[in-house]
Amino acid sequence: MDTTQLDKSILTLQKSLQLLLQSKRGSTEYEVFRNATVKGFELTLETSGKLLRRALRAYMGSPRAVEGLTYKDLFRHAARHGLITVEAVDRWFEYRDNRNTTAHDYGLAFAEETLRLLPAFIGDARALQERLADASNDSDEA
């Protein structure tokens, strides 16, 4: 499984967050980097979910069964199969709930909540990317 896109998404998210934190709050640059950071969060979250669906096909009997999983079930199954930790499942739920809020609420509060979640999210996304890359390498060697 190619995790290059997820890796790039995480790196872009990290860089936009770094630039945001270096910007003066309230400046145009801050607004630009905050918007880029929120969008980077959304893209990384969506990419993570898509890769998990692909990875779970190896564990479940039918691709159709994987496609039918809700977002929460997707992450529950990922934990059952060791692709993420059980502790991370609730955090991924929180990330998704935040993402759903960003799709409907464009105010400052949602952006600030997203920014609060980012350090843990980046760590969890990186752990997922590494686990999926390792799993892919293991299956290539078999």
Please, could you describe this protein's structure?
It is a single chain. The protein is mainly α and 142 residues long. It has a single domain (4-141), classed as Up-down Bundle (Four Helix Bundle (Hemerythrin (Met), subunit A)). The protein is built from 6 helices and no strands. Helix 1 runs antiparallel to helix 6 (108-141) and helix 2 packs parallel to helix 6. The mean pLDDT is 89.
- Structural Rg: 16 Å
CATH class: Mainly Alpha
Coarse shape = elongated
CATH H-tier superfamily: Nucleotidyltransferases  domain 2
What is the CA-CA span between the terminal residues? 14 Å
Low-confidence stretches: none
Helix content: over 70%
Number of domains: 1
Helix segment count? 6
Q: Mean pLDDT, rounded to whole units?
A: 89
Written as H for each helix and E for each strand, in order along the chain, the element string is: HHHHHH
Largest sheet: none
CATH topology: Four Helix Bundle (Hemerythrin (Met), subunit A)
Report the count of strand segments: 0
The fraction of residues assigned to DSSP E strands is under 5%
Structural class of the secondary elements?
mainly alpha
Q: Label the CATH architecture.
A: Up-down Bundle
